[in-house]
Amino acid sequence: MISTSDIRKGLCIKYSNDIYKIIEFLHVKPGKGPAFVRTKLKSVSSGKVIDNTFTAGHKIDDVRVENRKYQYLYNDGETFHFMNTEDFNQIEVNESIIEGRKFLKEGTIVTIIINTENSDILSVEIPQSVVLEIISSDPGVKGNTATNATKIAVLETGVEINVPLFIDEGDKVKVDTEKGNYLERIKD
Question: What digits encode the pLDDT tens for the residues 18-64?
Fold first, then answer.
């Protein structure tokens, strides 16, 4: 059991007969009334995000988890295959618990969160940003960096994103995996 003062981003808790991961929290001390903690909780089983408010001092059941590094190997439909970077054991993970899977490229190192009580895989976290190659886009326009005009480009994973006009096919770009936005061009 933990208290609301122990709440932090990434903490896994038992709540409403499910396991939730805290993705956002805010401690609030109003001028009148008791303090409370406003949270955004994401179900690790369904991916559903809910808002919840805990009063200060409320006791919460935490879930002991272990973070392990795995390398993404390949997928065969709905199953993704990963290899542990320490002992080289391979595991299979259903695509439904992988956020941002459309940005996964073979060889990417991910963090897999495992419940230590029963060895269930709770979630697969991909890096905050990844570097991917542009495989298809309209020709680039040199010098057009002053405006915020964009065009659609297809990444090597098949995802379409908006990129600035000066980006060409074959360029490598850094992409925010959470929002799916272009961040910057990577020079070799």
Answer: 888 888 999 988 888 888 999 999 887 777 889 999 888 888 888 88
Distance, CA of 64 to CA of 23 (rounded, Å):
17
Which one, of 122, 124, 9, 112, lies nearest residue 63 by Cα?
Answer: 122
Q: Give residue 137's Cα distance to chain centre.
A: 26
**Angstrom distances, CA of residue 128 to CA of 31, 109, 177:** 37, 11, 6
pTM passes above 0.85? no
Which tokens sit at 41? 């909780």
Q: Would you list the DSSP string of 30-94?
A: -SSS--EEEEEEEETTT--EEEEEEETT-EEEE--EEEEEEEEEEE-SSEEEEEETTT--EEEEE
39 and 10 inside one domain: yes
Locus of tokens 């993705």:
23
Here the CATH number for the domain that contains residue 46 is: 2.30.30.30
How many domains, in total, are found in the chain? Answer: 3
> Which CATH number fits the domain that encloses residue 151?
2.40.50.140
Domain encompassing residue 89: 65-125
